[in-house]
Structures are given as C-alpha cells and as structure tokens.
C-alpha cells in the first residue's frame, strides 16, 4: 500500500498528479414507466480527487450511490452534470479515450466457462488489440501474478468463486490500465479468498496503478485504502485517511467487568452522570459487564474508572478498545447522524469540501 496521506483541499492541482478527479458529478434516475415518474438523485454534486498510485475506497450504506459513481467513472453510465477526469481526459466528453485508461472488475469472470483461465485471458488481451503472441505472454504473466498457475489450463467453469474473482481481476488489469475500478471485489468470498484479492490489489499499486474501490467490508477499506470517502444519500459525508476518520468520528470504548457482588446497576447509573468527561450512554452487556463510549479516549476512561473506584464498585477488569472504521461508518451514516466535531487536519466534512 502506498503510504500516501492527502488533504483534498490542501493539494494544489499542480503539486500532485491526480489519476481521477470528479467535480460536481450528479446523476438522477427517473422512476415509473418510461421514466416519467419522480426523479431520484442517486449522486449529488460529488467531488473526489484520487492521487496517482493510491487506493481510494468509497464507503456507504446500501443505496448510497457507490455503484452509480463508479459506473460513471467506468463510462458505463453518463453523468447528468459535472466533470470526470481520468488522467486529465474527460470521461463525459470522450468516453472511448477513457476506456483505454481504465480497467473495470466484474466484466471478465464469465467470458466463456468452457475455455481455460489462460484462454479467457488471452482472448481479453487480444480484444485489447495485442497480437496472439503478446496476448499469450501477458495472459501467462497475469496467471502467475494472481496465483492461478495450477488451474491455468482447466476450464473456467471448474474454478471456485475466489479463483473466478482473481481471473476477473487479471482481466481488468491485463491492459495495464492507469485506473483500476473495483466494485465490491471480494463480496461473497471467504476470508482466505478475500486476502488473496487484497494481496493482488496491494501488488497492483506497486506497478503504479491507481485503484478506486467500493466495498461493504470496513476492514477491507481499513486494510487497503490510503483514503476513504464516505457517501450517504449520493453526497460526500466525510473523507480522510482511515486513521484520521477513526480519530475524528470513531469513539474508543471502555468495557468494565465487576465482581458478581459489584453493584452493576449502581455502577451503570454512575456512568450515566459522566457525560462531562466524555462518556456516552453505558450499555449493560450481561450481569457483570457494561460498555461505554469514551469520547475523550484515555482521559475519560481514567475518569470513569476513578468514579467506579469512588463507589467501591469491585472492578475486575477494565479495558479500552480503539475506535474502528465500523464506529465511523455507523456514526456517519445513521439516520440521525450525530453532529460531528470540527474536522481534523486530515479529515473533511462535506460542508467543508463543497
Ligand atoms: N438504473 C436505476 N434506475 C433507478 N434508480 C436507480 C438505478 N440505479 C440506481 N438507482 C438508485 O440510485 C440509488 C443509488 O444506487 P447505487 O446502486 O449507486 O447505490 P450503492 O451505494 O451502490 O448501493 P449498494 O451498496 O446496495 O450496492 C439507489 O436509491 C438506487 O435505488
């Protein structure tokens, strides 16, 4: 993974090369027969900048507009308005030029199930205009890189889900695109299959490729992404590095275990009075444990434990867990989104971005 850290507004257009720029991109769909019903805005004035060679993840709940966004970047859908630039080429005005610059996952896995993985890839390479010899060499190279050597000459219909995904990824990158678009590349894979794809994606960035990724798996974004944009209702809600988002929007959690005679109810009542030191509402986990968010990290965890000590609560164990991207996701996409604090150095709220 490239250790790039960006602050979108702090990057001057000349200071860094952007593989992908979206400005004010909007897409609406009409409902009802013949598209005559009400219009629904799937993507709403979306701005995004992705530095060359980095991995950018778009996160959001179902229906947030992720697939619509990547489909517009992939020239599979036309934006209603706004600008999409890939390596400086306008995807709306010149989609065919852009198609030579991008690779899109999900399009190659089922080319022909009776052909072997190698034959499928060679065919895709030839479709990109490579000679048969060049296509064969490139297909073999991809097969080896994606760990498919042993199965290369078997009919593709015998491949497992994970192998198909890797073959699909090989098809998406066989033409050495500068921007690779991966829409939920590991959905449905088991943990081993997922990790194999992660390794392949990581390897890909070493060749200088830029990756735009959507995923439902927060640990996937955490593992792979240099930067994350959280979208909700078609608009950007926040963006930053995984770490800056966790710092800004995720809360650490204090879990406390008392002895059986440790007066849990009383302890929980005391916790509810500690909002002034950054504790949230305590949640009772069982008859001896409760959990409470501690906005102020260690400081509020220490204050909480002190308060328990003052009431002789018989604490057996108290541990603080670091915020996760899941906390961030939930905080930013819940229906009554909490009023998040001021943006940190590396994290932006949508109001700051537009
Ligand atoms: N072709 C279409 N016609 C009408 N509405 C559409 C169409 N495609 C998407 N939408 C709507 O646009 C919104 C965004 O959909 P999109 O598929 O981009 O979301 P998503 O974030 O990818 O969701 P998911 O995680 O469920 O795949 C949704 O409300 C969806 O119903």
Automatic annotation (TrEMBL):
<keyword id="KW-0067">ATP-binding</keyword>
<keyword id="KW-0046">Antibiotic resistance</keyword>
<protein>
    <submittedName>
        <fullName>ATP-binding cassette domain-containing protein</fullName>
    </submittedName>
</protein>
<keyword id="KW-0547">Nucleotide-binding</keyword>
<dbReference type="InterPro" id="IPR050763">
    <property type="entry name" value="ABC_transporter_ATP-binding"/>
</dbReference>
<feature type="region of interest" description="Disordered">
    <location>
        <begin position="335"/>
        <end position="354"/>
    </location>
</feature>
<dbReference type="InterPro" id="IPR003439">
    <property type="entry name" value="ABC_transporter-like_ATP-bd"/>
</dbReference>
<dbReference type="InterPro" id="IPR027417">
    <property type="entry name" value="P-loop_NTPase"/>
</dbReference>
<dbReference type="InterPro" id="IPR017871">
    <property type="entry name" value="ABC_transporter-like_CS"/>
</dbReference>
<dbReference type="GO" id="GO:0005524">
    <property type="term" value="F:ATP binding"/>
</dbReference>
<dbReference type="InterPro" id="IPR003593">
    <property type="entry name" value="AAA+_ATPase"/>
</dbReference>
<dbReference type="Pfam" id="PF00005">
    <property type="entry name" value="ABC_tran"/>
</dbReference>
<feature type="domain" description="ABC transporter">
    <location>
        <begin position="20"/>
        <end position="258"/>
    </location>
</feature>
<keyword id="KW-0813">Transport</keyword>
């Amino acid at each position: 993974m490239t250790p790039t850290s960006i602050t979108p507004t702090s990057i001057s257009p000349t200071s860094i090369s952007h593989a992908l720029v979206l400005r004010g991109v909007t897409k609406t769909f009409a409902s009802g027969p013949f598209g005559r019903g009400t219009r629904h805005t799937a993507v709403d004035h979306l701005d995004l900048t992705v530095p060359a060679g980095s991995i950018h993840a778009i996160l959001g709940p179902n229906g947030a507009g992720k697939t619509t966004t990547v489909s517009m970047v992939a020239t599979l859908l036309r934006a209603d308005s706004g600008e999409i630039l890939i390596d400086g080429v306008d995807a709306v005005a010149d989609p065919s030029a852009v198609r030579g610059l991008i690779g899109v996952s999900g399009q190659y896995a089922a080319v022909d199930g009776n052909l072997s993985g190698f034959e499928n890839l060679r065919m895709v390479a030839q479709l990109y205009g490579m000679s048969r010899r060049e296509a064969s060499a490139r297909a073999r190279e991809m097969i080896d890189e994606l760990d498919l050597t042993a199965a290369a000459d078997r009919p593709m219909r015998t491949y497992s889900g994970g192998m198909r995904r890797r073959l699909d990824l090989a098809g998406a990158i066989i033409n050495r695109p500068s921007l690779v678009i991966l829409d939920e590349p590991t959905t449905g894979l088991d943990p081993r299959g997922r990790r194999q794809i992660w390794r392949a994606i990581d390897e890909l960035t070493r060749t200088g490729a830029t990756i735009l990724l959507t995923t439902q798996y927060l640990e996937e974004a955490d593992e792979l992404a240099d930067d994350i944009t959280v979208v909700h209702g078609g608009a950007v809600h926040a963006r930053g590095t995984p770490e800056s988002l966790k710092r800004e929007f995720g809360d650490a959690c204090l879990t406390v275990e008392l002895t059986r005679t440790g007066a849990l109810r009383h302890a929980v009542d005391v916790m509810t009075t500690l909002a002034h030191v950054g504790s949230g509402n305590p949640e009772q986990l069982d008859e001896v444990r409760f959990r409470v968010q501690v906005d102020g990290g260690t400081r509020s965890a220490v204050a909480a434990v002190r308060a328990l000590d003052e009431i002789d609560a018989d604490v057996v164990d108290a541990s603080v867990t670091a915020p996760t991207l899941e906390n961030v996701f939930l905080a930013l996409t819940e229906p009554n989104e909490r009023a998040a604090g001021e943006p940190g150095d590396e994290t932006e709220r949508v109001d700051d971005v537009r």
